[in-house]
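User: what does the whole thing look like in 3D?
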Amino acid sequence: MALTGMRGLSVFISDVRNCQNKEQERLRVDKELGNIRTRFKNEKALTHYEKKKYVWKMLYIYMLGYDVDFGHMEAVSLISAPKYPEKQVGYIVTSCLLTENHEFLRMAINTVRNDIIGRNETFQCLALTMVGNIGGKEFSESLATDVQKLLLSSSCRPLVRKKAALCLLRLYRKNPDVINIDGWYDRMSQLLDERDLGVLTSVMSLFVALVSNNVEAYWNCLPKCVKILERLGRNQDVPQEYTYYGIPSPWIQVKTMRALQYFPTIEDPNTRRALFEVLQHILMGTDVVKNVNKNNAAHAILFEALALVVHLDAEKEMMSQCVALLGKFIAVREPNIRYLGLENMTRLLLVSDAQDIIKRHQAQIIISLKDPDISIRRRALDLLYGMCDVTNAKDIVEELLQYLNTADLAMREELALKAAILAEKFAPDLSWYSYQFLHQFHIICSDIFQM
Amino acid sequence: MVRLYPNRCQLVGSAFISGFLISLVRSFIHFVILISRQGKVRLTKWYSPYQQKERSTVIRELSGLILTRGPKLCNFVEWKGFKVVYASLYFCICIDPDDNELEILEIIHHFVEILDRYFGSVCELDLIFNFHKAYYILDEILIAGELQESSKKTVARLIAAQDSLVETAKEETGSISNMISQAM
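Assistant: Here's the predicted 3D structure for the full assembly of 635 residues, as structure tokens:
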């Protein structure tokens, strides 16, 4: 599967790589840009094939970091090419080079629209992909209806429908009015019945966006979401190709749980029970396995489940299970899990009862404050800041100030700031506060004078 | 009582809590960047509007941040109020702070596995000389900064179909040129 066609492009890339230094590279690039500029000026004589070649070269040069301030017109014009290879390049390079408000995009709207409503499925896909990636408000106003039609059409193949779902999502983000809530009350519910898991993946992303803005309209979708989680959790009717290291579509599971976090409550006791069963299974049944990817996918689901449990303000028992799990996580060797453990513990602070249970892990969190990984140090700091109250303020502030001595530059400002806020908020008495303040002031001053 | 940082205190205090309560409407992948160990850009795809100059700044800043991280650290960095998940030879994906980091990490792996399948054990040279292919493939995996297709089999089939469309078109062009040159 080596180099395909376009010898000129490969030769150019080789030339650039063989340059001994930046100066040589710049010369070679400028030469090529000049060549392309000249060829583009003589547009009538340029075949689509040649245009395609030059447009790819332009993108390559752009990726090298050079300013490419011409040729956007040519890239966009390729969108109108009659044949697939050139059209494909037009669409892709346009979506790489141009941003949503670029004036040239406006000129392509008609061609794009024709591709979307036309009979050629591959052209539809190209158009939907580009619009989904860089469509702006104008595209939204012109195309949303047509894209919607494709998504809801039973005669469209899954390939087109899944792209239409995400394209519509983009257009909705740019202009929420394109989705008429009244019409979508039932449509969304039907879409969630989708059997094709590729389409369901895309549809679920669309659903998360819709429900985040307007929960009332989508209550009937709640039980469907729980059913989806049940089905995937039991690995029921899941084709092999959608099983990721043995886990049935982890991404759909995560997205569905994300969607459920927008519903303030679950009224129906049956649905609530079913959901808690699923969550309990995830909380208790996620083991640490050797395979990194399986582990990541399983824990991606676990952490989203944790967030959902917190949101549902579940029974105290489930909450303690969550904190116990997190307490385990913040002490493991795996840095990703340590990071996420600290982050999720911080989220748990929003739940009133959890604070006391979390405080039991204070010692481990303070160890994390000095972790070799700055990402973990930051999470530890946030957590300490959040879990600080009258009972542990003195200890925590003293730890922070002590650490300030040896902390790296990137952390110091935030450390000092947080320590100051906590000291002020919880100062047991004036003398303690003055001491902390002076101590801190001393450190900051010595920093300043050393710089 | 002496107030150290009066207004900023309140700002920081409230921002800390409200950070977790803000609606997630804008929660999606903002961009994907692939940089080599030497900081060379192999692929960039922007799902949020970043102007040319901003893009260069982003690449420069993230390269500095990520390339200097040691091997035993976690795959997440915090940058400008966003999170960047990165992995193997520096595929970097920028997300919002409340997004699910491990899910994104596995999207990177999913992408790499598909590239592996397509190129037959992908290496950096493949991505350099066939960067256009990498873009085609990425467009079958992500749209609007969201996962589009999680079946490797389906993506492989789609790319193969695209390849054969291109081959067919080339043959047609070739045969027409032949006809013309023979006729002359």
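In plain terms: The mean pLDDT of chain B is 82. Chain B touches chain A through 81 residues (CB under 8 Å).
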